[in-house]
Amino acid sequence: MAHRGILRTATAVLALALPTALAAPAAAASADPPPQETAAAPADHGASDVHVVPGSYSVRHYYSTWREARTYRQRDTGHPTGTVLPTGRHYFFCQTEGQPHSDGDGRYSTWWVLTDDSANRDVFVSATALRLAEPWKPVAGLPGC
């Protein structure tokens, strides 16, 4: 009999705590993680058609840009937003291949990273702006879109 009482109490505690415990990872994901650049090798992601759903990406990966970078609505330079991402530390959601891009200083890449700028959500920046990016290679540690 005593075991049934303990079992009922444990079940009631779990019923109250479980929804809170399941919601905690979502709340933690929306909070800014501690600033630390990712340096792990990414999985191999080929070029694909990217359909960005505004606000659909929530995990943020922090990288530093070594220069000011123009932002674009697509993975090419044909649709600029008119704003820039300033030099410094920023979050990025994912990466994908697109039109080749040069930064004007001899660095080239076909990789584009998805972020938010000061006026727009879900915009692309050429990976040439990231401090850790290597020419023609995906950004280490950033997942594919």
Provide tags for this entry:
145 residues, 1 helix, alpha+beta, three-stranded antiparallel beta sheet, 20% helix, 7 strands, globular
Offer a quick outline of the entry.
This protein has 145 residues and is of the alpha+beta class. Helices cover 20% and strands 28% of the residues.
Low-confidence stretches: 16-51
Please tally the helical runs, counting DSSP H or I stretches of 4 or more residues.
1
Rg over CA atoms: 21 Å
Integer average pLDDT = 72
The SSE order reads HEEEEEEE
Largest β-sheet summary? 3 strands, antiparallel
What's the number of extended β-strand segments?
Answer: 7
Percent strand: 25-35%
Strand order, main sheet: write it out.
5-6-7
What general outline do the C-alpha atoms trace? globular
Which structural class fits the helix and strand makeup? alpha+beta
Describe the structure.
- The chain is built from one helix and seven strands.
- It has 145 residues and is α+β, with helices and mostly antiparallel strands.
- Mean pLDDT is 72; it is low at 16-51.
- It has one helix spanning 2-30, and strands spanning 61-65, 69-72, 80-85, 88-92, 94-102, 108-115, 123-126.
- Strands 5-6-7 form a three-stranded antiparallel β-sheet, with no helix packed on it.
- A hairpin with a 7-residue loop joins strand 2 and strand 3.
- Helix content is 20%, strand content 28%.
- The relative contact order is 0.21.
- The N and C termini lie far apart (55 Å).
